[in-house]
Specification:
Blueprint lengths: L2 H12 L5 E10 L11 E2 L1 E14 L4 E6 L7 E4 L13 H12 L6 E8 L9 H16 L6 H16 L6 H8 L4 E6 L4 E6 L23 H13 L21 H6 L51 E3 L16
Parallel strand pairs: 4-6
Antiparallel strand pairs: 1-3, 1-9, 2-7, 3-6, 4-5, 7-8
Length: about 325
């Protein structure tokens, strides 16, 4: 379903035009499996498949959700009733982002949302991350939150780790929020520095095949969770307090360097001090983080210094829909 169709369906559901339509892509990872929660390197790139959301604000503390991809009507939730791991349905992903934004001190007063996605679910292409990121982009714009793309990715990871209960690393959300068309994203998860690597296969006469093996997976359980748990057990620094017991943050606007020094796990089932969770929330009694071992890496640009347009997009309409354009935003 294209942006115009999503817009029209929103109007049918809610009886008014949306304030805008946003999109965020799925991803394929070229290098770095299970390294994004082990202080490693990853290099994903964005797919043409994407999650699309038409969104308008509300002021009554109500979140209304509808998906073109799931049978059923509009789901209505109260913002003050949102609680981690209280929802086992698809609505947990957009609701989790709203919860994470509010927990981080951002005043979100409600929203009407209609979603559609062409990212295959359970195929390892980041369908959940694209869903989270498109909601974060929309609410960030509508509520003028002033958050950079890497910060939105962190909040989306927080939503999936804590609200949904899935032990994901930072790669999927960062890829969906920060990847650029025609490039792969080199991400060093030690400090979240990133570099856009030219990756125009068509110009080189090449193709990259993404094959559907028909094997399904789920981040919140199954083999992914087992592999994650095994990595956590192998860590030498295992005495860290999980982030779920940490105090509520007062700000999300940390620099990447500060975030690196203040990490703790956002997954309540682990105790890693590194990139397994929300970087701004940490126990006050946590020991100092061990310095990473020295190793060489490509020269990367900190997220706060990158100013080129992201692959994720947004559209807004007045009375006449304009042509679709990429939205420039710092990442």
């Amino acid at each position: 379903m294209g942006a115009q169709q999503v817009r029209e369906r929103f109007a049918e559901l809610y009886g008014a035009e949306p304030e805008g339509v946003w999109a965020a892509p799925g991803r394929v990872n070229l290098i770095g499996e299970h390294t994004d929660y082990n202080d490693g390197f990853v290099m994903p790139f964005a797919l043409p498949h994407q999650a699309t959301a038409a969104v308008s604000r509300r002021t009554d503390g109500v979140l209304r959700l509808h998906s073109a991809d799931v049978e059923g009507g509009i789901v209505e939730l109260r913002l003050d009733a949102l609680a981690p791991q209280s929802d086992e349905n698809w609505t947990a992903y957009p609701a989790g982002v709203v919860w994470a934004l509010r927990q981080a001190g951002h005043e979100i007063t409600g929203a009407d949302i209609h979603l559609s996605s062409t990212v295959p679910t359970g195929a390892g292409l980041s369908s959940s991350a694209s869903l989270e990121v498109v909601i974060a982009l929309a609410l960030g714009d509508l509520y003028d939150l002033g958050l950079q793309r890497w910060q939105l990715a962190r909040l989306c990871q927080r939503a999936e780790n804590v609200y949904v209960g899935a032990p994901t690393g930072i790669m999927d959300q960062t890829a969906s929020a920060c990847c650029e068309s025609g490039h792969a994203l080199f991400l060093d998860t030690r400090d979240l520095s990133q570099q856009q690597i030219p990756f125009d296969l068509a110009a080189e006469g090449l193709r990259l095949l993404v094959v559907d093996t028909q094997v399904k997976h789920a981040h919140s359980g199954g083999e992914y969770g087992k592999r994650r748990a095994g990595c956590e057990r192998a860590r030498p620094c295992s005495a860290w307090t999980p982030c779920a017991t940490s105090p509520t943050p007062t700000s999300t606007r940390l620099s990447p360097a500060s975030a690196t020094r203040r990490r703790s796990s956002a997954w309540s089932g682990t105790s890693s001090p590194r990139t397994s969770g929300w970087s701004a929330w940490w126990p006050s009694s946590a020991p100092a983080r061990p310095a990473p071992s020295a190793r060489s890496s490509p020269r990367a640009t900190p997220p706060s210094a990158t100013t080129s347009a992201s692959h994720a997009r947004s559209w807004t309409w007045s009375s006449t829909p304009p042509s679709r354009t990429a939205r420039s935003a710092p990442v």
